[in-house]
Amino acid sequence: MGGRDANMVLLDKNGIRCDGRKVDEPRRIMIRAGGLKNADGSAYIEFGDNKILVGVFGPRDVHPKHMSNTDTGILRVRYHMEPFSVGERKNPAPSRREIEISKVIKEALEPAVMLEKFPRTAVDVFIEVLQADGGTRCAALTAASVALADAGIPMRDMVAAIAAGKVADTVILDVNNEEDQAGQADMPIGYMPSLKKITLLQLDGVLTPEEFKKCVDVGVKGCELVYELQKKALHDKYFGNRGD
Ligand code: UDP
C-alpha cells in the first residue's frame, strides 16, 4: 500500500475504475490446464495482465530424507518472479517477498491436498510469474490448484483466489497494480467453494469492521466465479477437443 496518489483517479464519478472496470468486476481471466509435458501436472493462467505458469511434480521421494514425514506427505511451493515480469528488472535471487508468498500459497493449499495419503513423499509446486500486474499470489494459488488437480493429486476441493480491496472509500473486487499501490486496502482471499472454507486471508491497509465484512463477502463471491473457470479449464482438457 503506497498511500494515496493525489493524481490518480481510482474511481470516477460514474463508479468506473482506473482500468475501466465496475467496482465488482474482475479482470479477464483465462485458465488452461496442462501444457507442460515434463511435469506431472501443470496450468497456465492469465489474470488481467498477470501471466503465470505452474508445474507440479509428485508425490515423489524426499531428498534429503530427513525432511520427509513418516505420517504424511509434504507440500513444497516455490513462487518465483522472472526478472522481466515487472517494469523495473527484478533481481533473480529469491527475495523476502517471494519467500513469504511461497509460504502463504503453501499454507493456503495444504487444507485442500490429501497429503495424508502419501506418507514420506513430497509434492512440489513450481510457480513462475512471467508477467505481474498486482494480485499474483491469488492468480498463482488459483493456477496451482488446477495444476495439482491436473497431476491427479487427490484433493478435498480446489482453492480459488482473488483479492477484494478498497479505493476511494469503496469496496472493490480484484485489485490491480495501480489500485494496490495507490488504494486504501488490499485483501487477498483463497477459498474452497465446495467446502465453504477460507484458506488464505491477508489484509494490507485499513478497513472498518463493516468494510472488512463486505470485502470478505465480495471476495468469496469472486472466488466462486474463479472456481467455475478452474473447473472449465480441467473439463476442457479432459473432456474437450484440445487434443493434448
Ligand atoms: N511488483 C513489482 N516488483 C516487485 C514485486 C512486485 O513491480 O519486485 C508489483 C507486481 O506487479 C505485483 C504488485 O507489485 O503484482 C503487487 O505486489 P504484492 O507484493 O502486493 O503481491 P501480489 O499483489 O502480486 O500478490
Summarize the structure.
This protein is α+β, with helices and mostly antiparallel strands and 244 residues long.
Helix content, binned percent: 25-40%
Structural class, by secondary structure, is: alpha+beta
* Number of structural domains: 1
In total, the number of strands is: 10
The CATH superfamily is known as GHMP Kinase, N-terminal domain
What composes the largest sheet?
5 strands, mixed
* End-to-end separation: 42 Å
Oligomer: single chain
CATH class term: Alpha Beta
The CATH architecture designation is: 2-Layer Sandwich
DSSP strand content: 25-35%
CATH topology: Ribosomal Protein S5, domain 2
Order of helices and strands: EEEEHEHEEHEEEH
Radius of gyration: 18 Å
With strands numbered from the N-terminus, the spatial order across the biggest sheet is 1-2-3-5-4
Label the overall shape.
Answer: globular
Poorly predicted residue ranges? none
Q: What is the arithmetic mean of pLDDT?
A: 95
Count of runs of 4 or more consecutive helical residues = 4
What ligands can be seen in this structure? uridine-5'-diphosphate
Tell me about this structure.
27% of the residues lie in helices and 29% in strands. It contains four helices and ten strands, in the order ββββαβαββαβββα. α1 crosses α2 (136-150) and α2 (136-150) runs parallel beside α4. By secondary structure, the chain is an alpha+beta fold. A five-stranded mixed beta sheet has the order 1-2-3-5-4. Strands 6, 7, 8, 9 and 10 form a five-stranded antiparallel beta sheet that branches. The longest helix is centred in the C-terminal third of the chain and has 31 residues, at 209-239. The termini are far apart. The structure holds uridine-5'-diphosphate (UDP). The site of uridine-5'-diphosphate has 12 residues, from α2 and α3.
